[in-house]
Design goal:
It contains seven helices and no strands. With 143 residues, the chain is mostly helical. The protein has one domain. Helix 3 crosses helix 5 and helix 4 packs across helix 5. The protein is globular, with a radius of gyration of 14 Å.
Length: 143
């Protein structure tokens, strides 16, 4: 299955639609955002991404920092639609049951990796702006 068809299947899945439905409630509630951040950090640490997946881990950490900066009120230059997309992807990421269940060794994170890579590409302008903001000394720690 190529990356494009996998993304299409993920975005149409009941699992991602559920995550998208929850995203608005999370985005409006800083407490829920911080809880999502904590769950995302725990999953990253628990899975122990190495080798080729190190870039994936770096991308998820970037998304976590963006959400943390938004939730804390330090960075509000993130468009609402972009925030909802990031939150939906993180909800999907922390869910153990999704298109490809995470308990399957290696293959279980394939859908998570594809989704995060797609999101980083889709939000490249917002990611770049956030990166510039961070470089100006506004770095957010994730853990």
């Amino acid at each position: 299955m190529n990356e494009e068809s996998m993304i299409s299947r993920i975005l149409k899945s009941v699992f991602f639609k559920s995550a998208t439905g929850k995203a608005g409630r999370y985005a409006r509630n800083s407490g829920k955002l911080f809880e999502l951040i904590k769950d995302s950090v725990s999953k990253l640490q628990g899975v122990g991404f190495k080798g080729n997946l190190a870039e994936f881990q770096t991308s998820v950490q970037l998304l976590i920092r963006m959400v943390r900066a938004y939730a804390s009120g330090e960075y509000r230059n993130l468009p609402w639609k972009s925030l909802l997309s990031i939150v939906a992807v993180l909800i999907y990421f922390v869910s153990p049951i999704d298109l490809i269940p995470d308990f399957l060794p290696f293959i279980g994170v394939t859908d998570d990796v594809a989704l995060v890579v797609w999101l980083i590409k889709t939000l490249s302008t917002d990611v770049q702006k956030f990166g510039e903001w961070e470089k100006k000394g506004k770095t957010i720690n994730i853990g």
